[in-house]
Amino acid sequence: MKTILNVIWLVLSGFWLFCGYVLAGLLLCVTIIGIPFGVAAFRIGVYALWPFGYTTVERRDAGAPSCVGNVLWLVLAGWWLALAHIVTGIALCVTIIGIPFGIANFKLIPVSLMPLGRDIVSTDRPFAAR
């Protein structure tokens, strides 16, 4: 079932969201300071490409640097990507078939706003990262 949902997601919105994350990652990797943000964009982009069957968990050892990094991320790329998730989610919720995919888009908004300090794990083992 996860595979079917992921394939439909890929066609409806996953590819375009992935392209947005890759573009943000490439722009952030231009400077040496932005490389960690670019890596986070690529990581979340792969998650946005194939989200069903995975979830995010908060890392307890992230600390203050990830908090500061999340504020910078929010200003540089986070709100653009969250806006893309909002627009795509609303567009998908117009049809009955698209409602689960719209809800999945809305669930990706917190991750797109503050990705640092979070790990992506399989839904089979959400507590394995701790």
Characterise this structure.
With 130 residues, the protein is mainly alpha-helical. It contains 5 helices and 2 strands; from the N terminus they run ααβαααβ. The protein has helices spanning 2-28, 35-49, 63-92, 99-107, 109-113; strands spanning 54-58, 118-122. The protein has a two-stranded antiparallel ribbon. α3 runs antiparallel to α4 (99-107). The longest helix is centred in the middle third of the chain and has 30 residues, at 63-92. The mean pLDDT is 87.
Topology as a string of helices (H) and strands (E): HHEHHHE
**Average of per-residue pLDDT values:** 87
Structural class determined from secondary elements? mainly alpha
Shape: globular
What is the percent of helical residues?
A: 55-70%
Supply database-style keywords.
5 helices; globular; mainly alpha; two-stranded antiparallel ribbon; 130 residues
